[in-house]
């Protein structure tokens, strides 16, 4: 299962939103795989295409993180068992590992903390990361944001220049929301940053400049796990067969904490913007049709997406395609978080800095890339992984 580099470096994964459904599912899955209690289904980097590239091993991983919630990971895992997200009885079998990770989690900072005292909040996040690295003697640390979706951030003059941004934060000006502030904390602490949410953290020019300045990778944004995954696979079919898409309407029903957050139109705006990006890029135009996100509490951690596509063929003949996607978002997202952490750790070992366009395969609105076709994204990902591994000398013979 592991394909560790020769010297088996210890590497750390710090999760923003560490007690959430995605993070908990990922931690349970990681512990189960290391203990040979579960297989790697859903993990892209466990495909044969990635054999021999020297990705950091799962058994060498140290997991930590922060969350304003206080429910212990074992309890969260039991809740996910009840919901059918993880197998029955798994929480008990990996309870010791969950307790070990739980002991490393901090309270992080709240949106109120960031708004009231951003300089203090930044210092606290930096101190947490520094302690995590030193306590566990880590070679690389990757920070991944899997917290709740934030509303779009209000533009500010400081966002265009890294020195102006750092000066504003030092002066205690509330110019960032929690996710972008976590990105600043990560990059100034020598850690890479990945945004699995549609927050603004990876698209702010000053934060991209900060990554370049510190020689650290940056990746995001908004993990592609359901309806949009299907869009990036299906839309090229219409474009390549010269079929005119007249409309593409989507209805998304979801429960859980994410569904509750996205029931707020202000928070949902970030998600809807990222979901709209692929069609325009792939088709060259934006077809008609609404995309909705609605909260149905009874669905819990499950989601249903129904899409109606109307298209036009030869001689203007009108046709339709409909699909229904029903899945568990946490189970779809969790292995991708591990994939991204491993790939970004490889990029760190190779000395890559700034946005990583080759990781577009994982995101709805990928930073640093205009490629949205799923097949092409996968080809680019494999090519980049092998080239990057060759530069580190970790490619297996």
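Sequence proposed for the structure above (397 residues):
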């Amino acid at each position: 299962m592991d394909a560790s580099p020769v010297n088996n470096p210890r590497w750390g994964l710090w999760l923003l939103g560490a007690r959430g459904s995605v993070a908990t599912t990922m931690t349970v899955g990681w512990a189960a795989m290391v203990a040979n209690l579960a297989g790697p289904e859903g993990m892209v980097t466990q495909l044969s295409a990635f054999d021999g590239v020297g990705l950091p091993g799962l058994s060498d991983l140290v997991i930590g993180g922060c969350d304003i919630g206080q429910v212990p990971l074992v309890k969260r895992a039991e809740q996910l068992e009840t919901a059918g997200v993880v197998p029955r009885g798994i929480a008990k079998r990996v309870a010791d590992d969950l307790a070990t990770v739980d002991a490393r989690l901090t309270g992080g900072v709240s949106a109120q903390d960031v708004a009231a005292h951003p300089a203090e909040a930044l210092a606290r996040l930096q101190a947490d990361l520094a302690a995590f690295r030193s306590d566990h003697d880590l070679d690389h640390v990757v920070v991944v944001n899997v917290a709740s979706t934030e509303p779009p951030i209000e533009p500010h003059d400081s966002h265009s220049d890294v020195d102006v941004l750092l000066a504003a934060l030092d002066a205690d000006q509330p110019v960032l929301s929690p996710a972008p502030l976590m990105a600043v904390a990560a990059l100034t602490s020598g850690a890479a940053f990945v945004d699995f949410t549609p927050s603004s953290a990876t698209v702010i020019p000053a934060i991209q400049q900060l990554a370049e300045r510190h020689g650290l990778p940056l990746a995001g944004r908004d993990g592609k796990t359901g309806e949009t995954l299907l869009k990036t696979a299906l839309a090229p079919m219409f474009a390549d067969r010269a079929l005119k898409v007249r409309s593409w309407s989507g209805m998304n029903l979801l429960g859980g904490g994410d569904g509750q957050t996205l029931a707020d139109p202000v928070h949902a705006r970030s998600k809807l913007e990222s979901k709209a990006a692929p069609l325009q890029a792939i088709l060259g135009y934006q077809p008609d049709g609404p995309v909705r996100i609605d909260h149905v509490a009874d669905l819990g951690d499950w989601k249903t997406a129904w899409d109606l596509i109307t298209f036009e063929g030869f001689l203007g003949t009108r046709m339709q395609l409909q699909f229904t996607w029903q899945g568990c978002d946490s189970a779809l997202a969790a292995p991708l978080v591990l994939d991204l952490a491993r790939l970004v750790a490889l990029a760190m070992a190779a000395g890559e800095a700034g946005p990583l366009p080759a990781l577009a395969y994982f995101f709805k609105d990928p930073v640093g890339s205009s490629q949205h076709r799923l097949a092409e994204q996968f080809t680019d990902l494999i090519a980049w992984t092998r080239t990057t591994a060759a530069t580190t000398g970790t490619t297996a013979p």
